[in-house]
Write a structure and sequence with these properties.
- The structure is a single chain.
- The chain contains five helices and ten strands; from the N terminus they run βββαββαβαβαββαβ.
- It is 21% helix and 17% strand.
- It is of the alpha/beta class.
- The mean pLDDT is 92.
- The protein has an eight-stranded mixed β-sheet.
Length: 247
């Protein structure tokens, strides 16, 4: 099953896996876990066990049925490189990707070490964007070095939810950075200076910068609902997208 995405930086979601387990600070208030519980209550196929990890092979061929070039976010409801996902199943996902060069596939993981290990013996399809989550210094920043080991045409960072000042970033080999605050009733605040520090480093290192949202807190440090100003940083929107590198 693929669905039209409400995520600002993609078009469709493709979930041949659902469910996950928490491994770092960014997982504490996981939006996918909350959504999975709602879908289970609604009787949605694939979510009979809520957020328990589940492979759904009947969804593997969904992109093959779509001829229109589309940007897919892969496993918005899981993590493709979860330790309990067999490598053979990940191979099947990439076989579909390789068969559909008209599409682009964005894959985001918190299991950066497994990402690097997987591709140490495999090539990356040209239509794949690979990214890692960078929510803080302890868990997130070390993932960047693992991502850099993988020869993807586009490598990106999802600095969301941004939970602290992540300090000085080496963006060598990184093509795109997304920044956003946490959403939901238990959202942790994001300070403007944290987000802007990442933006400045992107500008200095010539990396595309995308500001996704403030989330549950505003730039003024007050809890609020989303508004028309929910994507403004320094009084403007930042919607930069990566250019495919040469070669």
């Amino acid at each position: 099953m693929t669905t039209t995405s409400r995520i600002e930086w993609t078009e469709q979601t493709w979930n041949p896996i659902v469910g996950c387990t928490k491994i770092s600070a960014g997982c504490k208030h996981c939006y996918a876990e909350v959504m999975a519980k709602r879908l289970k209550a609604m009787g949605t196929p694939g979510y009979e066990k809520g957020f328990a990890l589940r492979l759904i092979p009947e969804r593997l061929e969904d992109p093959l049925r779509r001829k229109k070039p589309t940007v897919y976010f892969v496993n918005s409801m899981s993590d493709l490189f979860h330790e309990r996902v067999p490598a053979a199943y990940i191979d099947q996902v990439f076989e579909v990707i390789a068969k559909t060069p008209q599409h682009s596939y964005q894959i985001l993981t918190k299991r950066a070490e497994r990402l690097a290990n997987y591709f140490s013996s495999r090539s990356v399809p040209r239509n794949v964007w690979l990214g890692v989550s960078v929510e803080n210094k302890r868990h997130g920043v070390p993932r960047i070095d693992y991502l850099r080991q993988v020869p993807a045409k586009i490598r990106f960072l999802s600095v969301e939810p941004l939970l602290e000042d992540v300090g000085e970033l080496d963006l060598t080999g990184i093509h795109w950075v997304i920044v956003g605050g946490e959403s939901g009733p238990k959202a942790r605040p994001m300070k403007p200076e944290w987000a802007d520090a990442v933006r400045v480093q992107c500008e200095e290192q010539e990396v595309a910068f995308f500001f996704k949202q403030w989330g549950g807190w505003g730039a003024d440090g007050k809890r609020r609902a989303k508004s028309k100003n929910g994507r403004l940083l320094n009084g403007r929107t930042w919607d930069e997208m990566p250019a495919a590198p040469l070669g």
